[in-house]
Amino acid sequence: MSNALKRQRGFSLPETVLAMALMVLTVTALGGYQRGMAQGIVQLNQTRQLWRDAWRYSQLSAPPSPARGQVSRMQTSRQRCVSIT
């Protein structure tokens, strides 16, 4: 063998196993972090939706009654639309 091939060395088995173990731990930790963040975002969106619904329901009110209680109904012949004012 030439001197160049003798000098080239790869990683030893313990180094490779340690690197793989660290990689698995890192990926697992990042997966758990991502899952926790996703659950937090879902909970935040649900809370925001509840506040939006509460605001919307608190704003509901009866429409103002027409002047002197008069109501008129008109139907157009072309579009068959009904307009109640």
Automatic annotation (TrEMBL):
Residues 33-85 form the Prepilin peptidase dependent protein C-like C-terminal domain. Pfam families: T2SSppdC. The keyword Chloroplast does not apply. It is a single-pass membrane protein. The chain crosses the membrane at residues 12-33. One of its GO terms (cellular component) is membrane. Keywords: Membrane, Transmembrane, Transmembrane helix. Residues 72-85 have a biased composition (Polar residues). Signal peptide: none annotated. This is Prepilin peptidase dependent protein C. The lineage of its organism: Bacteria, Pseudomonadati, Pseudomonadota, Gammaproteobacteria, Enterobacterales.
